[in-house]
């Protein structure tokens, strides 16, 4: 089972907070790889920083609303 399947609320869930965090984490990893190869790509660096900030906000929201899922997801993503 993938990480997304563990946190889905229903079969077609794409918008729950945990699923969005998992998707953002994947995009952040891809962006980091891109920036390692293309150090002068300033727009990509800005996009990465925006994604990291968005992920942080999602984690803050999840911590307020569902502490159990927050702690479980935080452990699995590290």
Task: Give the SSE layout.
Blueprint: H1 3-7, H2 17-37, H3 42-65, H4 67-77
Helix pairs in contact: 2-3, 3-4
Fold and architecture overview:
The chain is mainly α. The chain has one domain: S15/NS1, RNA-binding (Helix Hairpins). α2 packs antiparallel against α3. The radius of gyration is 14 Å and the shape is elongated. The mean pLDDT is 95.
Question: What tags apply to this protein structure?
Answer:
0% strand, elongated, 78 residues, mainly alpha, 4 helices, 78% helix, Helix Hairpins
Shape: elongated
Ends apart, CA distance between termini: 18 Å
Q: Identify the CATH architecture.
A: Orthogonal Bundle
Give the tally of β-strands.
0
Strand content: under 5%
Helix amount: over 70%
**The biggest beta sheet, please?**
none
**Average pLDDT reading:** 95
Structural class: mainly alpha
Q: Any idea how many domains?
A: 1
Low-confidence stretches: none
Q: Summary?
A:
With about 80 residues, the protein is mostly helical.
